[in-house]
Amino acid sequence: MSTIKLETPLTFDKIKDLKSGDQVLLSGVIYTARDAAHKRFIEALDKGEKMPFDVKNQVIYYVGPTPTKPGFAFGSGGPTTSYRMDAYTPRLIEEGLIGMIGKGKRSDTVKEALKGRAVYFAAVGGAAALIGNCVKKAEIIAYEDLQSEAVRRLEVENLPIIVVNDIHGNDLYIQGPQEYLKEKE
Amino acid sequence: MRTINYQDVVEQVKGACIRMTCDLPHDVQAMIEKKASEEDGKLAKEMLNIIIENANIARNEQRPMCQDTGMVVCFASIGQDVHIEGGLLTDAINEGVAQGYTEGYLRKSVVNNPLDRVNTLNNTPAIIHYDIVEGDKLTLVLAAKGFGSENMSQLKMFPPAAGIEGAKEFILKVVKEAGPNPCPPLVIGVGLGGDFEMVAKLAKQAAIRNLDYVNPNEKLLALEKELEEEINKMGIGPQGFGGKTFVLKVNIEMFATHIAGLPVAVNINCHAARHIKVVL
Question: What is the rounded CA–CA span in Å between residue A30 and residue B238?
């Protein structure tokens, strides 16, 4: 299986041909946020304020890393479970968010919001040391009081991710097991 | 009467917290390697290989294999001929956790209560279960339990008429519903019997049990194998992308129960099934 190399910021052109099940190596700047930060994003938008970064064509990685050990650029940082962000995601897609990296199933509302507009990727859950080594630079840009949940700007190199929900309505969590079972018949 | 010093407990717990979060236990890694060699799913084999590579990186660089370094669960078996000197045993365990999580650069994932949600900044308190046993040793079985898998766990109080078929159906339903969320391949801990809180504790003990342990109860051993087969037949696979390795193992623990009940608990553990045993 071939691996697709992608650079952020993403554009519609870069994501339109991605298919669920595709393996991607992602490089460039991405932003971290978990549920606590998402709640603040929405509160800010509701008040007519700006988010800590312009979300248009950006990728959010759902991660709360371990503290960075001396001599490393980043701690261990695998994906957290994505459904906790479901309540906030459609609004961010409206604002131009184009990619999310996490693990686990999304709600039907999120899947609907992704169609034609944004891609949901999975990173390998629990592969936190390996993923941590793909982060070359990290800085907290907002909500430092949230500790591991603060918003960070990461520069990543060849971060291995898999397309789960593409813009065409496919879902690897449904089709992957179905296709595997079909092959076994 | 044998005396164990408070500070020795602190040191042992501190070291154990760092080791268990950075060194995947050998029984778990051996099982993942065995499953990787048997896996035939398209993405599945690669996922298992990435998980193995990650465990090796974590061990070599002494950094956590998973960023969710969990809430610490401790099963303490206290020999009745042991005396702890210099302070409370509970304080010693918590101080060891605090030092380990701070000095080991582990994530502090504990908040003071579910309403105020203020981080305690040192990953305490640990969840500690005490048991009094024979002898003059203190045995601590520690686990770093992540919440991606904890959140997918469930408990149900069945009437006896539901029988083992009812219990099996429930276990399969819980695991299927969890799907890709708790980072498969999983370890499934099942508790059968006891009462409401006992069955949850049994499930936790099963979820953190050594994977090379062979259940001495033949009926349970057969049930573990049957459930493992049934679950893996779902085709969900590692990470939920399709494959035959959805679970590494099903472990069952059982206890006496009431004439009117059949409690069943399913505690899910991820592939980073971190557990360690310390004997003082």
Answer: 26
Nearest-Cα distance to chain A for B218, in Å, is 31
pLDDT (tens digit, 9 = 90+) per residue, B198-207? 999 999 999 9
Are B219 and B2 within 8 A, CB to CB?
A: no
A135 is written with which tokens?
Answer: 């982060």
Which residues of A form the catalytic set?
38
Q: Which of residues 174-213 of B touch A (CB under 8 A)?
A: 179-183
CB contact under 8 A, B54 and A124: yes
Digit-coded pLDDT (tens) for B104-115 = 999 999 999 999
- Show residues of chain A in contact with B108, CB under 8 Å: 147-148
Six token digits for residue B110? 């504990």
Cα(A13)–Cα(B265) distance, integer angstroms: 48
User: Considering only CA atoms, which of A102, A48, A96 is closest in space to residue A79?
Assistant: A102
Same domain, B133 and B184: no
The CATH number assigned to the domain with range A6-24+56-184 reads: 3.20.130.10
Structural domain of B255? 148-273
Angle subtended at Cα B176 by Cα B171 and Cα B177, rounded to the nearest 5 degrees: 100
d(CA B103, CA B90): 20
* B21 strand-pairing partners: none
Average pLDDT of the residues in B227-251: 98
CB-CB under 8 Å, A173 with B63: no
Q: What span, in angstroms and rounded, lies between the C-alpha atoms of A91 and B37?
A: 43
**Is the ipTM reported for this complex over the cut 0.90?**
yes
Helices (H), B39-88: 44-61
Nearest by Cα to B145 from B275, B2, B52: B275
DSSP code per residue over A104-116: S---HHHHHHHTT
Residue of B nearest to A102 (CA): B181
Q: Where are chain A's structural domains?
A: 6-24+56-184
Question: Cβ separation of A177 and B236 shorter than 8 Å?
Answer: yes
